[in-house]
Amino acid sequence: MVIREPVKTDPAADVRRGPKKKKGVEVMTEISSDIIRGYNDTMILFLLIKGPSYGYEISKQIRNLSDGKYIIKETTLYSAFTRMEKNGYIESFSQISQDTGKRRTYYRITAQGMEYYRQKRDEWVLTKEVIEKFITKENENGSC
Amino acid sequence: MVIREPVKTDPAADVRRGPKKKKGVEVMTEISSDIIRGYNDTMILFLLIKGPSYGYEISKQIRNLSDGKYIIKETTLYSAFTRMEKNGYIESFSQISQDTGKRRTYYRITAQGMEYYRQKRDEWVLTKEVIEKFITKENENGSC
DNA sequence: ATCTTTACTACGACAGACATACTACGACAA
DNA sequence: TTGTCGTAGTATGTCTGTCGTAGTAAAGAT
């Protein structure tokens, strides 16, 4: 019976918990989960259009494509997979990778998934327009 | 004791339930609550920067500024007010309007609210960049 | 007279993101 | 040989913002 100490024992903790906040002069602007919400699916589908992939790879690709600005949480990613498979947007299949020889769960996009992606893309264009009407460029707003 | 019929008796129901979906050839692309989530506060604050206002007016201004593309739900709006007041982003005061003579709850933005708005604005710029990396322009993506 | 607009409030449900924690295996270093 | 790192996940429960539903109430329009 070991009393859990506040020592970091789990090496993968950073990935799960997200990047450390830089405490310093400048406040690190981070992408909040509220705005990305609902677009995680879109990002995953975008990557699956290029071909089947699996969790860990998708995760890395999102990090890379966003220049490290957005790191998707593991739980968010895998729950997105489950949800999208249930909705028929993706299909899973198990396969042994040629390089590691280990079994992994791959996902491929379906026709419905493509359709959903296109819808989300159109919605994005609309939403962007609307939100930008409420965003001042730097400090151009007269009253402040 | 009246058994509730499925007849629409409430005239304000449209505002609460949002616009009717146009059933026809083209599928109406609507802004989903998932992407606007978290930016309702930002939109409200943006309008309050220009001066104190109240629920109904804010609601109309959002509809107008977005050319009717986004109609905020009443419950969303008023719960946003409550939340933001609790967070210190806005202050409320009751006042009788000159025109109608009726008492209304007005809100004004605080310094903290301005700070929050600026943060959200910066976050938006970042988020937009990231999401656009995952959005293909129309059908330019090679594999489809 | 009844409908519409204005101006709210209350309550509960839902869904996506997240925190926390755990498993398992191979590589490589101290 | 112990420990850390990278890989590749699963399980479970919490939080929060949005939304559906349902009221109240008074002034103005038809």
Largest sheet of chain A: 3 strands, antiparallel
Calculate the mean pLDDT score of chain A and round it: 80
Helix-strand pattern of chain A = HHHEHHEEH
**Low-confidence stretches of chain A at least 5 residues in length (pLDDT < 50)?**
1-26
Number-wise, the strands of chain A total: 3
Give the end-to-end Cα distance of chain A, rounded to a whole number of Å.
59 Å
How is the quaternary structure best described? homodimer
Structural classification of chain A: mainly alpha
Give the helix tally of chain A. Answer: 6
Q: How big a fraction of the residues of chain A is strand?
A: 5-15%
Enumerate the strands of the largest sheet of chain A in spatial order, edge to edge or round the barrel.
1-3-2
Cα shape of chain A: globular
What helical percentage do the residues of chain A reach? 40-55%
Question: What's the gyration radius of chain A in Å?
Answer: 19 Å
